[in-house]
Specification:
Elements: H1 3-19, E1 37-38, H2 51-66, H3 70-73, H4 79-91, E2 98-101, H5 104-118, E3 124-128, H6 133-140, E4 152-156, H7 161-164, E5 169-175, H8 187-196, E6 200-204, E7 223-226, E8 240-244, H9 288-297, H10 306-327, E9 332-333, E10 345-349, H11 353-362, E11 365-366, E12 368-370, E13 374-378, H12 386-402
Parallel strand pairs: 1-11, 3-4, 3-5, 5-6, 6-7
Antiparallel strand pairs: 2-8, 7-8, 9-10, 10-13, 12-13
Bound molecules: pyridoxal-5'-phosphate.
Pyridoxal-5'-phosphate (PLP) is lined by residues 103-105, 132, 134-135, 175, 179, 204, 206-207, 227, 240.
Length: 417
């Protein structure tokens, strides 16, 4: 086949895949500009259509008119719990184990501390050297509050993890999907290995919840945290969430004693008494506007079969990978080439990666760059189509054909890449 024939065949193939896509209708629920191809839903999810009306009601009616009565009358005070219950099914968690609060970093600090308390502060925390930096920072500096200020924190390469899980490990802290490479850990296997070695597990689900099935209860995961603003589409800076398996909930106190985690906040008691259950993981006053946005955004997951979402996500990834190969653009695949071993993201490397991403953005294809040379394309099966992928690769080829990525103005990097 000539390249033109190959291109025509792949256009037809993309159209066929879209025609058979049972999730195609989901895109209507998002406010995406028609001509833009958004491949960054793993970093900031787009806004679901129902969000502005929910915020408008909260602003104009609840905050403006009902003022402080809204804490009771509009359920503001319960939002961390009601939102937790909405997120729970996405994680395979039975009720009473998830709460929505704070940022992932802060939530991680709470569960790391609790996991180490349960383990008597003995043994080490084990993580992956290439874990998301905030996870590494939080684990490393947990020693600031560890008894005697001592804490062993081991980091190993991903491929050495299984072997490193031995009797010396107390807590295994991992991100389900690697933010750089998109590599997906085997949560079932690693959780079982950790338990066998006597360790507790903490999974960071920031890059996996919302685009694949997760079975925290069935796998007997101990703790999990994750983001509200990535695949959950809760908006910039949306609060994150914490999962604590019921069996651990009353065995330790999380370290950030705040009044919202108190058994009776409105007794204003001078002494801290933690609430029973998951509620003790709260600390301060919930950010209501952010929570209302996330609450509305989660409606997107009503009636969604996550098995179908995962299936389409894998197909989108394969499509992108295949078309990039066909196009001949000089990007090197960084993600695992097996779709089963990837999250909902495909990453590539190129020595001018920043320029490539910026040139693509100017052409309406939004991906992102991670230092030093990584191009990330996030794939969201709820709004990305196969023709999106097709067009993105055509525009990528245009960038290289015209040398757009080499323009000098891309030499300087913006603060957020
Ligand atoms: C995005 C992300 C975070 C972000 O944490 P914040 O406290 O919300 O900034 C943490 N961990 C992982 C794995 C992430 O991908």
């Amino acid at each position: 086949m000539t390249q033109a024939d190959e291109l025509r065949a792949s256009v037809q193939h993309s159209m066929d895949l879209d025609a058979r896509d049972s999730l195609a209708g989901w895109r209507q629920q998002f406010t995406l500009a028609g001509d833009e191809i958004y491949l960054d839903g793993n970093s900031l999810g787009p806004m679901p259509r129902c969000v502005p009306a929910a915020l408008e009601t909260t602003l104009r009616s609840h905050w403006q008119n009902d003022l402080i009565r809204s804490w009771n009358d509009h359920g503001w005070i319960d939002l961390p719990i009601t939102l937790g219950e909405k997120i729970a099914p996405l994680l395979g968690a039975a009720p009473g184990q998830v709460v929505c609060t704070d940022s992932t970093s802060i939530n991680l600090f709470k569960v790391l501390h609790v996991a180490m308390q349960i383990q008597g502060w003995k043994g080490s925390i084990l993580s992956e050297a290439d874990n998301f930096p905030t996870d590494l920072y939080m684990a490393e500096n947990l020693r600031a509050v560890a008894p005697r200020g001592a804490l062993a924190f081991e980091r190993v390469a991903s491929e050495d993890l299984a072997e490193a899980i031995d009797g010396s490990v107390s807590v295994l802290l991992l991100s389900h999907v690697n933010f750089r490479t998109g590599a997906l850990h085997d949560l079932v296997d690693l959780t079982a290995r950790a338990h066998q070695a006597g360790a507790l597990v903490i999974w960071d689900l920031s890059h996996s919840a919302g685009v694949m099935n997760i079975e925290l209860d069935a796998c007997q995961v101990d703790f999990a945290v994750g983001c509200g603003y990535k695949f959950l589409n809760g908006g910039p800076g949306a609060p994150g969430y914490i999962y604590v398996a019921e069996r651990h909930q009353n065995s330790a106190r999380q370290p950030l004693w705040g009044w919202m985690g108190h058994a009776e906040p409105f007794q204003f008691a001078p002494r801290y008494e933690p609430a029973p259950g998951i509620k003790r993981y709260l600390t301060g006053t919930p950010a209501i506007l952010s929570m209302v946005a996330l609450d509305a955004a989660l409606a997107v997951f009503d009636d969604l079969d996550l098995t179908l979402a995962r299936q389409k996500s894998k197909q989108l990834g394969e499509h992108l990978k295949d078309l990039i190969t066909v196009s001949g653009v000089p990007l090197k695949l960084l993600s695992p080439s097996d779709a089963e071993a990837r999250g909902s993201q495909v990453s590539f490397t190129h020595h001018c990666a920043y320029g490539v991403v910026q040139a693509l953005i100017e052409l309406g294809v939004i991906g992102d760059f991670r230092a030093p040379n990584i191009i990330r394309f996030g794939l969201n099966p709820l709004f990305n189509s196969f023709q999106d992928i097709e067009r993105a690769v055509v525009l990528l080829k245009q960038v290289f054909d015209e040398g757009r990525h080499l323009e000098r103005r891309f030499d300087e990097r913006k603060p957020v890449t």
